[in-house]
Amino acid sequence: MMKLTIAIPTYNRAKRLEKALFDLSSEINSASNKALIAVYVSNNGSKDNTSEVIERFSKRFNENGIPFSSREAAINQGFDANVLACYAGSQSEYVWFLSDDDNIITGAIDAIIQDINQYNPTVVYYNHDQKPYDKTQPYIQKIEYFDKVNKDNINALRKIVFWPKLTSLVIKRCKAGLNVPNKNCGFSHVTLALQCGLNGGMVLHSPVFTAHPDDDYTENIDFPPYIANNLDIGIRWVLEDNNKMHLYNDLAIGLTDPLISTLNTLGAYYRGRHVLTLPLKTELWETVFREIKGKWLKRIVDWKSIKELVKFPVSVAYGFVFTMITRKRITKIRQLLSDN
């Protein structure tokens, strides 16, 4: 059995997947633990030429002695289903999830294998070189090993919940993880980590940086800024499944105000500092109307929301005036190939 599968969930990003697999091929070939590594790609029903990219790189990896396998869904089943398929489809002892728009840092593969061999962990959580927690301010500053997860050392899981990066997680394949259902909340990787950590303990936090996003990653975001609130769905399921709901408050889940976060995002868009897809722009405007209506009906006086509501028209007016004066649009709409 292979020690580690590097699993990539992907949908309609053939060009970016091609870069990810090209770089991954080089990194594995240069790793001293190459013989322990396999690659798995889960294609979530892509409509572009993702299948061709996977087929081409399948030959390339296998010719270089690197086991490569993949699955292809008939239709897009959503991010969570894709991540869970990666976990179930990998045949190695451990699974490292790699986002198709993240870049592996040289030496990361050997560092992961070293941690696995030294600690035999159930879950490993690594640094991700992305602001605000880049190499100048690392999120994890020292090795921490939690033999068991309980109320006294809940930080083993709380840090994962607070900064839930897909590529930061390496998870051991175990029965508890394979039983995780698709809650369609957008955070199945966190649900997997919590489920396996609560069942098996042995959670490792490592200060090693394993990956970094593209420089323009903020321009490719296609989900609302309050999506992290959905994490609550997966967390509640895990705690209930393990009879650990008493840990809920200790996890200190930070919920985002949908109205404030949406006004901030739309404001940045109208000032030309954020790129949106048309469906996301529409969703954000719907959120604004829904949240304002809800707060008005409940007669909620929220001064933070009022402050943002006062600032927001200024951003819209700025975009309008800029266009009128320069005859150029400051707002940017990005064409969307994927809805994942």
Can you put this structure into words, describing what you see?
The chain is an alpha/beta fold. It has 2 domains: 4-251, Spore Coat Polysaccharide Biosynthesis Protein SpsA, Chain A; 258-333, no CATH class. 44% of the residues lie in helices and 16% in strands. It is built from 12 helices and 11 strands. The protein has helices at residues 14-30, 50-63, 79-89, 108-119, 155-162, 175-178, 188-200, 231-241, 248-251, 258-270, 278-297, 303-326, and strands at 4-10, 37-43, 68-72, 94-97, 102-104, 123-128, 144-146, 169-172, 203-213, 275-276, 332-333. Strands 1, 2, 3, 4, 5, 6, 7, 8 and 9 form a 9-stranded mixed sheet that branches. It has a two-stranded parallel ribbon with strand order 10-11. α2 (50-63) links the parallel β2 and β3 (68-72). α7 packs parallel to α8. It is globular.
